[in-house]
Design brief:
binds magnesium ion, six-stranded antiparallel beta sheet, binds adenosine-5'-diphosphate, 13 helices, elongated, single chain, 291 residues, alpha/beta, seven-stranded mixed beta sheet
Amino acid sequence: ATPAALVAGTGAAAKAGILVRDIEALERAARVDAVIFDKTGTLTAGRPALVATEALDGDGTRLLALAAAVERGSEHPLAHAVVEAAEGQGLVIPKARDIHADPGEGVVGEVDGDRVAVGSVRLLERQGAHTAPVEQPFARQAAQGRTVVAVSEGKRAKGVLAFADAPRPGAAEAVRRLSDRGVRVIMLTGDSAEAAAPIARSIGVSEVIAGARPADKLAMVQRLRGEGRHVAMVGDGVNDAPALAAADIGVAMGGGADVALETAGLALLRPDPLLAPAALDLARRTVATIR
Ligand code: ADP
Ligand code: MG
């Protein structure tokens, strides 16, 4: 028989916008003493807006059109921002072939016979591009707390695009509530340290791990668990699915609940960071009642 407290607990959870996979998930959530948050789309709105374009050859229009051509093949929030900006300016976006997204790095495609890469400097380097010319504009934009991506065409670096993404309402309060309960809070992001720092500061997170690829996110979860921590990983599932699956309890925020519950034990039906502490509280209360 299902304990009455679990039924009551999960009923309240569903009403609050929290889906629980099973009782094991609830029990693991009750023991959590470290919460890792993905940044983009989880602590921030995940709707970055393009705020600056720096073209090395002065042709910002061509830079944006080129980037939009390959970003059309990506589901990433940055990709939507690029395409939206290009369309908003009424640009003619060239056709791209062979588009390949590299999670946590960017996207590559072929435009007019050249490989075009949009993403991290690391990604451009892997495409054999000479990245030295974009280092200064990249650093200049990142120093303003912006997310920056570089663009290359063949071996030539073309310039950088910079984006701003606001913290979600409730992010700071969620961090405070968790900290008040003695939970260690960590921000984990594929973004640069410079872009992550101002956001972390504004929402009160002191521990930030930046430049993390999906595999690094996974390793971080495993390391904390190895240190004896009970880890919750909160992410949007865009490129943190392995980390969600490896955590003591994966918490998938927003998106399709069915898919989310396959890798995560908890799904938050609204993209509201406050549901994270609410879910942990609820788990603790419910488990305490059962015992
Ligand atoms: P987070 O870990 O904060 O959710 P992501 O891992 O989604 O961030 O992205 C990290 C970095 O990967 C971005 O800052 C960007 O440099 C690069 N990136 C990923 N996807 C794309 C894309 N479609 N276009 C451009 N850059 C991308
Ligand atoms: Mg993300």
